Amino acid sequence: MSENDLIPRIQALPIWKGRITATPLTGGITNVNYRVTDDQATYVVRVGDDIPLHQVLRFNELSAARAAHAAGLSPAVVHAENGLTVLDYIESRTLTEEDVRRPDMLPRILDLVTRCHREVPAHLRGPALVFWVFHVIRDYAATLTEGQSDHKAMLPELVETGNELERAAGPFEIAFGHNDLLCGNLLDDGTRLWLIDFDYAGFNTPLFDLGGLASNNGLSPQQEDWMLETYFETPVTDDLRHRYAAMKCASLLREAMWSMVSELTSDIDFDYRAYTAENLARFHAALENFKQG
Q1: What is the distance between the alpha carbons of residues 111 and 192, in angstroms, rounded to a whole number?
Q2: For 89, phi and psi rounded to 5 degrees?
Q3: What angle do CA 154, 158, 160 make, to 5 degrees?
Q4: pTM confidence score
Q5: What is the pLDDT of residue 2?
Q6: Per-residue pLDDT tens for 175-187?
Q7: Which 3 state secondary structure label does DSSP give 285?
Q8: Which of 237, 241, 254 minimizes the C-alpha distance to 181?
Q9: What integer pLDDT is reported at residue 3 of this predicted model?
Q10: How far apart are CA 239 and CA 228, in angstroms?
Q11: Backbone dihedral region of 76: left (phi > 0), alpha (psi from -120 to 50 degrees) or beta?
């Protein structure tokens, strides 16, 4: 949908006080977002319908966002209707991968993730989804095959690798995962951190978020061991390290295949082909380390 179509829809929302200004926010690779200011305050408007091919259902995102706000992790949801979600705007900066790796920042981020896992479920209302990365990988492969993706030839091997990783990553604990821990979903207002964008939220093994945080942001092996030891409050065993490494590989594989599907389906101006190549390279490097480990 073009900006000319979206702006009137945003203007027609019944919550505004006086005239509004709406400015596109750049950087999103799943949704379109606007910064909207009326006579009293500033907000973010997220534009997006269900995306079943990516397991994104907006009722679930909305429920998770409200629960995360109740848990003190995320901005408040002000209004939602017809594919438009209005949230409080947080004056802040978006973290970079380098920020995530900083020794003074990583403990704060891990605390935020831990609180998401342990506190958000107490505030959830209505049906709740499971985000199972291995199902997602298999489903993406079917979508890519049906869509005659340029990556079709590699799909059988990727699916078999995903199945092997599923066997290696168990047994599984369950927590409420954010499931998309890119640095762009972490905000710093100068006083505290905020966790945003709950498109993929759902119950999952905590190792998926931990592995995703590491792989998406280039944590060192020493930082990964610290993260596991701190999160689980126990020394890291070889078994835990093995299961975690399998889940980290699965996280990277899912990100690469997410990008492959987006190559076929997304209208957002973003170089998905380059993003696919970047994440496939990260995946193969992590998989090689896993096999040697």
Answers
A1: 11
A2: -85, 130
A3: 125
A4: 0.94
A5: 61
A6: 999 999 999 999 9
A7: helix
A8: 254
A9: 63
A10: 12
A11: beta
